[in-house]
Each structure stands twice: as C-alpha cells, then as structure tokens.
Amino acid sequence: MARTILIVDDHAGFRASARRVLEAAGYEVMADAVDGDSGVAAAVDVGPDVVLLDVQLPDIDGFEVARRLELAGVSSLIVLTSSRDRSDFGSLIEASGVRGFVPKAELSAESLAAVL
User: What distance separates the 2 farthest-apart alpha carbons in the chain?
Assistant: First the structure.
C-alpha cells in the first residue's frame, strides 16, 4: 500500500490540513512544495509513493507537472486535487495518465485510498 506522500499545492492552509489528515491516518508526508517546478524537483529527490498534486499552481499546471514527472521517470502515483469540480477539467484528467482525482473538500485517507 502507498504510504509516503508529497503534497504539491500553493495554499499553505491546504498543505497543512492535508498533512494533518493524512498523517493521522498513518501516511508519511515526506515533503511539500508550493509550485510545479519545486514539486517536480521534490518528487525526483524524495521518490514518494504518491504525489498529491493541485491542478492550479502559480507557475505550471498539474497536468504539466504530471507530464514532467513521467518524462523524469518518476514512478509515484499521481492524484490530482482541486477546489474546482472534476467535471471542470473534462477529459484532461483521464488523458494526463494520473491515477485519479480527489476534490479538496473531500480529501480524506479514505478518499485517497479509494483512488489508489
């Protein structure tokens, strides 16, 4: 089972609450990043089982981050998250090759495990 996580999100409050929720469920949050470029670097550096990746980042979007992680040979499972609804992204989620999507408002250990 996937146990180590990298959180990539530009909102400090979400990173902190996601960390609390996931660590309380037994996940180890290895690192977090505030934008796409630092998220790619952190994923390459720490090699987490899962990257919890915000779709909307200040530099590059989550879809581009996922593409760069694939090109870099990172084998982490990628789960996209957003405050927007899944339907707002149309077929982009499926086309990106990520493991799945969890809305930020519904993030829990159970919702993450269901995607994984």
Answer: 33
Would you say residue 87 has pLDDT above 90?
Answer: no
Query: What's the CA gap between 104 and 82, in Å, rounded?
Result: 5
Q: Which residues contact 13 (CB under 8 A, 6 or more apart)?
A: none
DSSP code of 82?
E
Quick one: tokens of 54?
A: 């915000």
31 and 50 Cβ atoms separated by less than 8 Å: no
Tell me the two tokens of residue 102.
């969890």
* Cα–Cα distance for residue pair 34/106, rounded to 1 Å: 21
Cα separation of 72 and 56, whole Å? 21
What is the value of pTM for the model shown? Answer: 0.94
